[in-house]
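Quick one, probably user error.
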């Protein structure tokens, strides 16, 4: 591994996934192709997306309401396209999956089923500095049950001076509060640091204490290898607009373990699209849930946004999740190597990598804690055509995504930073 263009070009030349870059629109900055490193916030648009959406608009124009049955992909069953394609991406059985709503809506719906506090079990264990929307959801769910968030929400924090939460601290917290815990609910990947949590160990520890275990996989789905069913995870949800490239506000995915999804008595908020398909249009008064994850649906499919989702998932099916996860770690590993070289050659360290270096604890995101001139460095990156992400007070997040980023992108990113440091020591 070397910090030079020849090496980067060689790695791209032997990359079996390099051709997928041509299937995406890459934004331009100042007339030049950008280095787009914010797939962890909004993935790029596949070039097929417009055709997929246009097909549904054409069928709407041609068939009107009959498009529910006569469209090329009949709308009444449109959501049924996704479980088979999503299953290998998240490591689930098809009957454990459904696509519906948006992420935080689905998180609330799942918590209505799995967070049902009693006098004995009422606590939620989560990571400190979870994504704010998750924090708000936890707080509002606790308040909904007439409880005090300060007593019910137990946050596990990084050790002082670090951004990483030690797995042993998580397990110890679960053990300490286990008999009072209703749900253990973490991110799969922390949005700020890029840390991949040890989901199988966390889940096992929660179950040993009699608690449910769920995950928000917003930064994990489409980024890292997941085995939700094998890990015995109770529930999870994720957005589709980050690594899954399905457009701003794109539909969300839901996983509910087979043992719960097949249980018709499992509490939930009911809607007509979760009702038994054979009798749905009889419009009966009593809810009879579908005995799969589909039983959590409330409304019929948002076909236009789902068509954009389908365009991206078809690419995932061709590329293969295992190959994508492997390349993502290679790209982030190469980025860390380059950043280390730059830091070593500077008069004094300019940034600290807060993302774990262990392959099992990261995906393709790298978070840099800037120690000097952080905002200036970020603005230089942006003006130089690197689309990155700034998080207060001083963190730059970048994510070289395996579907459309290259080793040369990472090299060019490093050269921009190196040039900045040479002129701002």
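Nope, works fine. Designed sequence:
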């Amino acid at each position: 591994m070397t910090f030079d263009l020849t090496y980067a070009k060689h790695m791209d030349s032997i990359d079996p996934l390099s051709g997928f870059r041509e299937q995406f629109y890459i934004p331009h900055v100042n007339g030049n192709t950008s280095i787009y490193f914010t797939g962890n916030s909004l993935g790029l648009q596949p070039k097929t997306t417009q055709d997929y959406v246009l097909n549904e608009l054409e069928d709407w124009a041609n068939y009107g309401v009959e498009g529910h049955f006569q469209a090329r992909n009949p709308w009444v069953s449109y959501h049924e396209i996704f479980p088979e394609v999503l299953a290998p991406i998240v490591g689930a059985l098809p009957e454990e999956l459904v696509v519906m709503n948006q992420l935080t809506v689905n998180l609330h719906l799942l918590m209505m089923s799995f967070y049902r506090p009693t006098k004995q079990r009422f606590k939620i264990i989560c990571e400190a500095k979870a994504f704010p929307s998750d924090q708000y959801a936890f707080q509002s769910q606790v308040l909904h049950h007439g409880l005090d968030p300060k007593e019910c929400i137990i946050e596990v924090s990084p050790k002082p001076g670090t951004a990483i939460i030690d797995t042993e601290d998580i397990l110890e917290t679960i053990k300490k509060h286990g008999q009072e815990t209703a749900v253990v609910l973490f991110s799969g990947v922390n949005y700020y640091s890029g840390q991949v949590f040890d989901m199988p160990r966390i889940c096992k520890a929660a179950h040993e204490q009699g608690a449910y275990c769920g995950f928000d996989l917003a930064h994990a789905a489409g980024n890292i290898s997941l085995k939700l069913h094998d890990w015995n995870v109770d529930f999870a949800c994720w957005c589709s607009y980050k690594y899954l490239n399905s457009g701003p506000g794109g539909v969300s995915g839901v996983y509910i373990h087979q043992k719960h999804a097949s249980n018709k008595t499992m509490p939930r908020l009911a809607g007509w699209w979760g009702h038994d398909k054979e009798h749905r249009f009889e419009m009966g008064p009593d809810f009879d849930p579908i005995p799969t994850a589909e039983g959590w649906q409330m409304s019929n499919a948002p076909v236009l946004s789902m068509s954009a989702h389908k365009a991206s998932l078809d690419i995932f099916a061709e590329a293969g999740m295992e190959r994508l996860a492997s390349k993502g770690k290679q790209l982030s590993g190469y980025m860390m190597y380059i950043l280390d070289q730059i830091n070593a050659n500077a008069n004094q360290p300019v940034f600290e990598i807060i993302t774990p270096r262990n392959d099992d604890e990261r995906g393709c995101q790298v978070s840099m804690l800037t120690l000097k001139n952080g905002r200036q460095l970020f603005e230089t990156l942006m003006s130089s055509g690197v689309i990155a992400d700034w998080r207060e007070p001083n963190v730059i997040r970048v994510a070289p995504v395996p579907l459309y980023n290259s080793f040369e992108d990472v090299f060019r990113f490093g050269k921009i930073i190196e040039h900045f440091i040479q002129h701002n020591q």
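Residues 12 and 407 are 6 Å apart (CA to CA).
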